[in-house]
Every structure is written in structure tokens, then in C-alpha cells.
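protien #1 (seq + structre)
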Amino acid sequence: MFESDLPRIRAVAFDLDGLMFDTEALFFRVAEEMLAQRGKRFTHEMMAAMIGRNWAVAGPALKRMADLNESTDELLTEARSRFLPRMDHEVQPMPGLLGLLDHVERAELPRAVTTSSRRDYAFRLLDRHELTARFAFVLGSEDVERHKPDPEIYRRAAERFGVEPAELLVLEDTATGVAAGRAAGAYVVAVPHAFSPAEGLTAAHRIVQSLGDPDLHGLIRRL
């Protein structure tokens, strides 16, 4: 259970990919297909080097680890052309997301999305699942100069909410995102999944099993 001396939380920031939606699973399938056509294999080690990072970091990591000849721009164009047409039909909310949003709303805590992806991509996902109106704002990669694990996005989120960083609850699924939230001074809860196991998330204040974990709901009830 959570300790009784929790900081006062006045707002909640949700990461997007892998935390709210199972986009990482689709990306893994897309990357496997891309590399298989080149006679190569996409590995979990490659995924670990990319997850939670924007393409400026993830693209070079893929190119280097898979020993690819194409430019990172070419790889991104191909990945998008494979991923986006399938996203609307193959990506679903992560278990417990809708119930958690209900719970946070009942607690009257404002919510935002804070993602390393671009805003138009985030809105496409949110609109598809009729979730856009449940968030006060969305911060994407174009809203910051320095990307996760830099704390800029969470400091900006706190500013937009009008709260101190220590009053912000951050929900993340990657070590990169956890590091960003901790460096911002926020209270960070991590939610592991198949591509981001719990052993890589130990820097979080707490690790829960899913967005529907009773411990996470209990934390919000205490706020």
C-alpha cells in the first residue's frame, strides 16, 4: 500500500504510448515486418533502446543496431506508412484506462497528456476513442526543446496546470518517462508492460500492475 505521508496532488499527467494505448505492440509488429523484408530481425533489445524516446533518438538507435542503410527520415516515412493505417483498428486502450479516468474525474483532478509523440498523432488516438474532452490539454514533442528523459515536458505541464511540480502525479510506462517525471520533481507511478518490464522502472516512486490496480485507485482516493 501507499504510505500516508503522500504529497498533495492537484493534477495528473498521463503518458500516451504504452501507458494509455497499446501502441508499442503494434510498433513492434511493424518494426518486425520492416526488418524481415531486409533479412534482419527486430529484437527486444532494439525496442528497449527506442521505447519512450522521440524519433530523433529512436531512429538512429534502430539504424545503428539493425545496421540499416536507409536514412532515419526514410525509415520514419516507411514506419509511418505501415503504422498509421493500422493504428485506428489495431490499437486499443490499455486495461483499466477508462475506469481510472472515471476515478480521477470523480476526485476532481485535472488531467493532461504528456507525450514524446507529436500532438496530431496524440489527438488522432484520443479522438478515435472519444477521449479528447477528458483532458485539459495535450503536450507533444513540438511543445518542448528537450525530450524525455529531460524534465521539461513535466515542468511545462505543471505550469499549464498552475501547480508546483511536486503537486503533479505522473503516470509513465518507460524508464525514460520515469526519469523525466522524477527530475521534474513530480510524484511518479510506473505501469510496466511486456515491452517495459518492472525491473527497468524502479526509479519510480511506485510501480503498479495496471491502470486498474487497486493500489493506484487507492492512492487517488487519498489525495
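ok now protien #2
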Amino acid sequence: MVSVLKDLFSDIPMFLLRIPVILLALSMHEAAHGYAAYRLGDPTARNFGRLTLNPIKHLDPLGTLMMLVFGFGWARPVPINTRYFKNPKRDMAISAAAGPAANLLLGFLGLFCANLFWFIMTRTGMLFEIDGVLYANTDSGFVMNLITYTHLFFYLFYMLNVSLGVFNLLPVPPLDGSRIFLSFLPADLYFKVMRYEHIIQLVLMLGLWMGFLDTPLRACVSFVMQGMEWLVGLIPIF
């Protein structure tokens, strides 16, 4: 864990770029849950002031730290009262899916902006290529850093939102994927599984902390990213 933190803080600009991305990603994730529930008839999130992008309303300290260090984390869950839903199982699944869906859409937007920025820089002559290597057409270190970190911000926005969306789709309590998956189970089986939610959450955190989940998670994220990059590649200007 100490080595991970050292690596994280070794590049201060990179660390600073991650903070606004994570704040927006987590806030959008929870606000999407609340808005979906609200549209389905549940005003609970609105009544608690959770239909907002204000990160103070949404952040969970441990989940935010995990997101900052490992790229996988969570926010403070939006309160949802299924008694307001016309079809509780279906509407709960829709509300749960809204958060990861918002992150995946944001991730696609980040990838599009990263590619668009690179396209503009090369077409305007700010960047040029020699033997497959890109160079900046400027003598200013400030301008070079601005170009580099702007592109990096978009790419981080893309990568971290995809990571958050994929992670929360895992069918493991208390993640959103479990709310989607368990909504299809009979009520008695659902409550038996949820009885062990805190134990499962502890196992999940230990798995992240010890690195046991790194390989499968990164494989899933890589698969989704490849799909998005293929889709963006279909846009004519790219």
C-alpha cells in the first residue's frame, strides 16, 4: 500500500488531474441513481438533496480513497425507497443501472474529447510527427505542458469513468451490479444474500487491497475500452 501511494504522489500534476475527474465521476454516478429513481416515482433522493453534482453530498471517504489509489471505488449510496415504485424489482434494477451507465457515457465522451483535441492539435500544426514520434511546434515549455496535460486530463476522464462504471456493474453486494442481478431473484433468496452484505463488502475491499481482483477487473475494463475506441474510430475525422 505504501509503494502504491508513493507511485501516486510521484507525479504531482497527474495526482492533481485525478482529483476533479474522480469528484465528477462519483458525483455524476450517484446523481444518476437519484434522478432515475425520481423519474420512476421515488422522491427520496431529491428530498435528501442528492440530485446534485456537489461532491460533498456524495463522497464516501474510503470509496474515494480506493478510487484515487486503485481506480476502483464507490460513493455514498443514494437513498432509494422502493415503496414508491410501481414495479419495485424492475425499477430498482433501472435505478441501479443508471449510475454505471452515466459513467460509461462520460467515459465515451472523455475518449471523444481526447481524440478531438489530438486531431485539432495535429491539424493546426501545434503537433507534428517525425518517424512516428509526435513533437510540439513550440519553444515554450508551458505550452507543451498545457497540451500534454490537457490531453492527459481527457484520457484520465475516459479511463477512470470506464473503470468506475465497470467496477460497479460487478454482481457483488453492495455494488450496483448486485442490485441489478438480485432483482431477478426470488424475495426469500434476495434477503438471504443481503444478510451477508457487509461480509461480502469486506471481502471485496480485501480483494482490491491485496490485488486479487486486479487482473479480472483490468481485463473487463480493457474489453470495454477497446469497444469504445473501436466506436470512436468509426467517426470519419478520426
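The mean pLDDT is 84.
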